[in-house]
Write a structure and sequence with these properties.
Blueprint: H1 6-27, H2 34-47, E1 51-55, H3 58-67, E2 75-80, H4 86-93, E3 97-101, H5 111-119, E4 126-133, H6 142-152, E5 155-159, E6 167-168, E7 171-172, E8 179-183, E9 197-201, H7 204-214, H8 236-267, E10 280-281, E11 287-290, H9 294-306, H10 336-344, E12 345-348, H11 356-369
Parallel strand pairs: 2-3, 2-4, 4-5, 5-8
Antiparallel strand pairs: 1-9, 6-7, 6-10, 8-9, 11-12
The chain binds pyridoxal-5'-phosphate (PLP).
């Protein structure tokens, strides 16, 4: 069994993907070919955003988004500690300082803790923005986050790397905040066959600045550079692959939701199953369970591996305890909820092509060994 079986999806789209890749080969437009523009239009309409800009990865999307705010070291950007490293790494890459926030029982940023961190900010820092993450596929609480952002005059960047395809009261992920980003890393809900990412906004000025940053701070022409940027383009071949995959994507999100429902029904007597808030539809980038304790998780994982059922721990070390952020002087105990979750959480196979018999096997084993 595989944790994410991309081969089964490939069987479905094989011929279409080959044809589209062949089209790029025939055109020889490997950089900024017509498929890139076609994909950007398609993604903007999918998320109901005015503008979409594709780029080289989710990390790069975050970096471009944050570079547009021209951060200085004293500029604090609030970010949950329970997320993938890139969510906070990008703040430092763009020149700012991350301030870590605890999470709530949905694993997303805890708004109460967020406001506390804003009002107790170090005197040598200046509050500038918030990165909210749609962790495991569930949108963060943008209504609440927006109230806080408005109160303190902060920008919001939505890290929708895992959330793409999800929604909150029928508003799609990557429609929230001033700028949203997503990732097309192969294992994400919508993945390409290499690295890829996208940036979304409704703000024309932001769009112009980010477009310039994406190609070396380009001005009016190719050799007119008006700011420091980077080489952030998406390959045309990756865009062609995504154009094929987006056609089956809604179906896949639906299947993920059916599987998640089945998992929850069978497992919620024994494990703490994911808490999806009212009105939200997750894209189920991960399906995560909580065990009773650190030792309990260790035992469960050993038992699963004996049966060759794959599982993963997202995330074993919250970001405030990562050595790369040692210079910020956080310690264990600072963000108790995410530290506790990091000790007890694990994720089981989740992808749209899981078969009934595999779900039986996974759930049967998990119930038996509990
Ligand atoms: C995967 C991920 C990223 C980074 O995306 P890449 O395409 O791998 O650079 C950023 N944030 C979150 C929450 C992610 O899961």
């Amino acid at each position: 069994m595989e944790f994410i079986n991309l081969g089964r999806q490939y069987e479905v789209i094989k011929y279409d993907v080959s044809e589209r890749i062949q089209g790029v080969l025939d055109s020889q437009k490997f950089i900024m070919g017509k498929e890139v523009v076609e994909l950007e239009n398609s993604l903007a309409s999918y998320t109901n955003r005015k503008y979409c800009l594709t780029c080289g990865s989710g990390t790069e999307a975050l970096q471009i988004a944050l570079m547009s705010y021209e951060l200085e070291r004293k500029d604090a950007v609030f970010v949950p500690a329970f997320t993938f490293f890139a969510s906070a790494e990008s703040i430092v890459l763009a020149g700012g300082t991350p301030v870590f926030v605890d999470c709530d029982e949905s694993y997303n940023i805890d708004c109460e803790n967020l406001e506390k961190k804003i009002s107790n900010l170090d005197a040598n820092l200046r509050a500038k923005g918030i990165i909210a993450v749609d962790l495991f596929g569930q949108c963060a609480d943008y209504t609440e986050i927006t109230k806080i952002a408005d109160k303190y005059g902060l920008f919001i960047v939505e890290d929708g790397a895992q959330g793409f395809g999800g929604s909150d009261h029928n508003i799609k992920a990557c429609k929230f905040g001033d700028i949203s980003i997503t990732s097309f890393f192969p294992a994400k809900p919508l993945g390409c066959y290499g690295d890829g990412g996208a940036i979304f906004t409704d703000d024309e000025n932001k769009m112009d600045v980010m477009k310039s940053i994406r190609i070396h701070g380009m001005g009016s022409g190719r050799y007119d550079n008006v700011r420091i940027g980077l080489n952030g383009r998406m390959d045309t071949i990756q865009a062609a692959i995504l154009l094929s995959k987006i056609e089956i994507f809604d179906d896949e999100v639906k299947k993920r939701n059916e599987i998640a429902k089945e998992y929850t029904k069978r497992l919620n007597n024994k494990y703490k199953t994911p808490f999806v808030k009212e009105g939200k539809i997750s894209s189920w980038a991960q399906y995560s369970l909580l065990t009773d304790s650190y030792e309990h998780r260790k035992y469960i994982i050993e038992e699963l591996s004996k049966s060759e059922i794959p599982c993963m721990i997202y995330y074993p070390i919250p970001l405030h305890l990562q050595s790369a952020f040692g210079y910020l002087n956080y310690k264990r105990g600072d963000l108790p909820k995410c530290e506790d979750y990091a000790d007890r959480i694990f994720s089981i196979p989740m992808h749209p092509y899981l078969e009934e018999q595999e779900i039986d096997e996974i759930c049967g084993k998990l119930i038996n060994v509990h």
